[in-house]
Amino acid sequence: MKEDQCSQCSQCSQCLCNSSWFEEEEEEEEEEKKKKKKKKKKKKKKKKKKKKKKKKKKKKEEEEEEEEEEEVSTRARTRIQASGELKVVWRSSDSVFLGPRAPSRPRPSITMVVVDDRAEGRRHGS
């Protein structure tokens, strides 16, 4: 189509040279772009929110684990104090290991020698 023909038939909505048709088409495209952008933003926001929620949940779980670990060690200490048999040997991040109480300082062994004084003719204690 030629431009001079288009200017004569300004009523033609299907004519590519009709400026009003172009404007409408551009507006529609812009609206579609805006909608797509909004959708993208919404999706991003949702994703961010989900991520934040996940982080919060993970943090909460970690705090609960720490509290539980603390509770276990407190119970272990109480048990140790009550029984006097166990002590905390070592701890890891997820559990407390109990073992037998460490022996106190080793005492030197004393060898007793019994001497029979009667052999020498003396009575013991007289």
TrEMBL record:
Residues 115-126 have a biased composition (Basic and acidic residues). Residues 20-126 are annotated as: Disordered. Residues 22-31, 62-71 have a biased composition (Acidic residues). It comes from the Eukaryota. Residues 1-27 form the 4Fe-4S ferredoxin-type domain. Signal peptide: none annotated. This is 4Fe-4S ferredoxin-type domain-containing protein. The lineage of its organism: Eukaryota, Metazoa, Chordata, Craniata, Vertebrata.
